[in-house]
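Marked as duplicate of an earlier ticket. Keeping the data here for the record.
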Amino acid sequence: MCRKWRSIIAIIGILMLGLVLPTEAYAHGVNIEYTSNVEIEIIARYDTGTPMAGAQVLVYAPSDLSTPWLTGVCDEEGRFSFAPDTSQPGIWDVKVRLAGHGGIIHIPIGGDATVMDGSGGFSHLQIGLMAACVVWGSVGTALYFSRRRRT
């Protein structure tokens, strides 16, 4: 037999032996999972920049503004983190207090949540109507006091 045929038979034999012997197959599949978490971190400091270490934190959900949804304490840097329940969209209130000092912050969570600005949540039409009423009342008062008295 020629050398060429011996090599071919040897290769076929090795391949057949590989099919007969039990081997372990390793798959290269991938499992990818995710969670969508919104984590809020607040940093509480005094006006001087000193952290409010150990300050009490009360978190209120939009569904119940009288009972705290979560309570906690700021760390030594005045930091506090929490993950709000995204199934409750709206304005979340976070109160921070320490030794008689404190404040509150309003955090919008969800698509339709908006923080009220300094206007108290009034629409532009309402603000315009209130301004017109103030002007009308001022003009009326000025005309009343500037009228001549009949004798």
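See parent ticket for discussion. The chain has two helices and six strands.
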